[in-house]
Amino acid sequence: MAPDLFDAHAHLREVPKAGAGWIVPGVNAVEDENAPRSERIWRAAGLHPWHLDGLEGELDALTKRAKSEDIVAIGETGLDAMRRAGPRAIQERAFRHQIALAMEHRLPLILHVVRRHGACLKMLREQSFPKDLGGMVHDFGGPAEVISEWIDAGFKLSISPRSVGREDRAVWISRIPEDHLLVESDDFGPERLLDVVRWVAAARNTDMNRVAERTERNARQLFRI
Length: 225
Ligand SMILES: [Zn+2]
Prior knowledge:
By secondary structure, this protein is of the alpha/beta class. It has eight helices and eight strands.
């Protein structure tokens, strides 16, 4: 029988039928409002680097959302070097604001980082983001060289369906310390999480139950749920 899985990052449209729990990241004011509710769904408040139109209004709304009692993290936020993301200065403004919010509310960060690992780590250091709050780098896709830097900064690394079947990634997936590993379905649909757990277990030469158990424990510890 397939193990019960905890999904550390899921853009859900509705409450899934089966699963141990889900972290639903913040995207923007409208999407956060429409996120499905359930006792096994925990929500973050955030402004995604692809959704930075009307930035000042969005940041004001986010500041209010972050005060809500049931918010377990800030993000997703971060820096994205690819075409769909906004101008770099705007991304940095949004990221800086969300680092400060996480520190103010003592919450972990959910990061979206595409080819900007060094710049993100530098901004966290500049704002003295505390290691004990930590967070996760969602859909982590390498490079292997930054794994230890993220771990040193207090972050866990989350594997998404984008890494399934990638032999090049299996090499470093096997080297992520067990207490820093998370799994997620991202926007592929929660049913895809089983493929991720199967792939991660194969890469690490272990069984699916162990991956399921450890990743759930890691998520619950990080988000204090
Ligand atoms: Zn996401």
